[in-house]
Sequence to fold (426 residues):
Amino acid sequence: MTVTEPPHAPARTPLWEAPEALRRTDPQIADVLAAEAERRRDCLQLLAGENTASEAVLAALAGPLAHKYAEGYPGRRHHTGCAAADAAELLAVERARNLFGADHANVQPYTGTTAMLAAYAALLRPGDRVLAMSLQHGGHLTVGSQANFSGRWFQFTGYGVRRDDGLIDLDQVRDLARRHRPKAIVAGSITYPRHIDWAAFREIADEVGAYLVATAAQTLGLAAGGAAPSPVPYADVVAAVTHKMLRGPRGGLLLCTAELAERVDRAVSPFIQGGPSMHEVAAKAVAFAEAATPRYRDYVHAAVDNARALAAGLAGQGVRPLTGGTDTHLVTADVSALGITGREAERRCAAAGILLGKCALPYDTAPPAETSGLRLGTGCVTTAGLGAAEMAEAAVLAGRALRTADGGGELAARVRELARGPVPKR
Fold:
């Protein structure tokens, strides 16, 4: 398989322009999309859940498979005319299996949440016990929130991190597993900045006879490029997404053992979904091919280096990184020493063009709607070509924004300049 590697560091790419057909047919939507492109160009995108897909991925999304209804699986569709859809899905599955070293891959889930729903449907029945990271300590809504299907259908017990160092308390995980005897243990977090000890979770799951589910939406892309340990050799099912660090289309992904392949497939379709979005499946195939290149491996390692530089810079601004730093592209930080909440910190940074997100912190005394925490990610800015020096400056700019209620003027202008990326070399 020959794949042209996408650029790692595009320098001041031209602003997106609406295709003539869209401009002519619907100028209002064309203007909306152009405004979004301009916003992305002019802001420091430090939101951990976002990235920028390549032109090849976007081309697949806009391709003719957008028209195709292909309910079912390759060779077993409910509709005719699916030869191209089958070919695209088989490529996506093969590339995902090879990229992650998995026995089986299902590339149909629409989102990470539906991927988790399918993982539970394959392994559990309503009322079963599940052990997962508590929501306040970094668990996603799909691990027990009462606003989510997970908290309504299953009995969740939450484990957390130690108060002194912020690291996952594996002794607590083991004790809770022995006490509650869960049907499944979920490992993974949306805010935890350190590597997960997948082998330790596997050992605990085996001891109590539980399935191990890895929720790896944030970090599976790092594992693909060798910048983080992979959950695939240890977990029965891995649920992830293809955007974020994989830089693919917005969508879900499931990896599992050969023994669970049929159960996982049936849990996706027909249990929770109808026809897959075949243009999205094709775009996933493109992203998997891109992630198998040396340039992608360079990219994920650069994202980790950038996160470490950002964490160190924020510490110098009086913003405490949890766990003292990071192993990944994530930085989780406490702004309480500045006398503001996470919500206010998010607003002040946004006013200056620095986009990040408030998040819950372990043992936080602030109300959940306000919080004391921020979650940042370096995936998008690394794709844009920014490096450790720019991350150090971004931390300084964020510090200035956090100390003022007005982020406009010279501060916003410098953020814009930094966000637009390096000046092209001549």
User: Anything to note?
Assistant: Confidence is low (pLDDT under 50) at residues 1-12. The chain has two domains: 64-291, 295-419.
